[in-house]
Write a structure and sequence with these properties.
Strand 1 and strand 2 form a beta hairpin. This protein has one domain. It has 5 helices and 14 strands. Helix content is 17%, strand content 30%. The strands form 3 sheets. The chain has a 7-stranded antiparallel sheet with strand order 1-2-14-4-12-8-7. Strands 3, 5, 6, 9 and 13 form a 5-stranded antiparallel sheet that branches. 39% of the residues are buried. By secondary structure, the chain is of the alpha+beta class.
């Protein structure tokens, strides 16, 4: 059950079941803590600027400018305007995927027994593609607004030939990640299976989340100083906020 905690470090908490979707507006200076309750979870996530939804999460720039293939503590999540949506300030897991993509409607039909809402009510099987489409429609967005998404709690590695491989059992029960938001951000997410998950039964892994207050960013902040590029990203954010968020 959702709970509200006004005027404390933790302001709100809730959970949602596997195979579901949600969206929320995270304000600058807040933290989104996401927890894998049972282990083996996956959280597909997209990020948009609520004032200009053409600005959205950019996976290639996020990886390229921080010289990484995975996401963990210290990394920042960049927009396609060179600004930072959020920083990963804590991470108990050490690896989150941003290259594996999203479970499509076709992939759902090919891998799992599809059950409709009429047949199974809230236990119906949904794809990440479907869930993103439903949430994006709430904000006047559509298929053309889909971008490469994050997959929190999932791990994809490559071999020497560049072939990607999903790592089963990567996330254990209680794994958490803390995202500190450096600008107002529309967060769109789902808990559908990772498209490379080899399970032949549709996995339903519940996820919990909390919204917490963040401390001010200090000059020695780990994320800001993790890479020289991150310092420039924070500077881009500073200019953006000086102009009222319209640059």
């Amino acid at each position: 059950m959702a709970e509200i905690f006004p005027d404390q470090e933790m302001m709100y908490e809730d959970r949602f079941d596997g195979g579901s979707h949600w969206s929320l507006l995270m304000r600058r200076g807040t933290i989104l803590r996401v927890s894998d309750i049972e282990g083996g979870g996956n959280v597909g996530m997209l990020l948009y600027n609520p004032q200009d939804k053409l600005e959205r999460y950019n996976a290639p720039d996020t990886l390229k400018c921080q010289h990484t293939f995975k996401l963990t503590r210290g990394h920042c999540l960049y927009s396609d305007m060179g600004r930072i949506f959020c920083s990963i300030i804590e991470d108990s897991l050490g690896w989150h995927d941003t290259v594996g993509g999203n479970l499509s409607e076709r992939g759902l039909r090919e891998k799992y027994t599809v059950r409709t809402y009429q047949e199974a009510r809230n236990d119906w099987t949904r794809s990440g593609e479907h869930c993103f489409a439903v949430e994006l429609a709430k904000y006047g967005l559509g298929e053309r607004d889909l971008a490469a998404n994050l997959n929190l709690f999932s791990k994809v590695v490559t071999d020497e030939d560049g072939n990607m491989r999903y790592v089963p059992g990567h996330s254990s029960a209680g794994s958490t990640i803390d995202l500190r938001f450096e600008m107002d951000t529309l967060v769109v997410l789902h808990t559908c299976p990772h498209p490379m998950n080899p399970d032949d039964q549709y996995p339903r892994k519940p996820i919990a989340y909390q919204i917490r207050k963040a401390a001010p960013v200090a000059e020695d902040d780990f994320c800001m100083n993790f890479r020289p590029e991150n310092l420039r990203g924070f500077q881009n954010n500073a200019v953006y906020h000086l102009t009222g968020g319209y640059q």
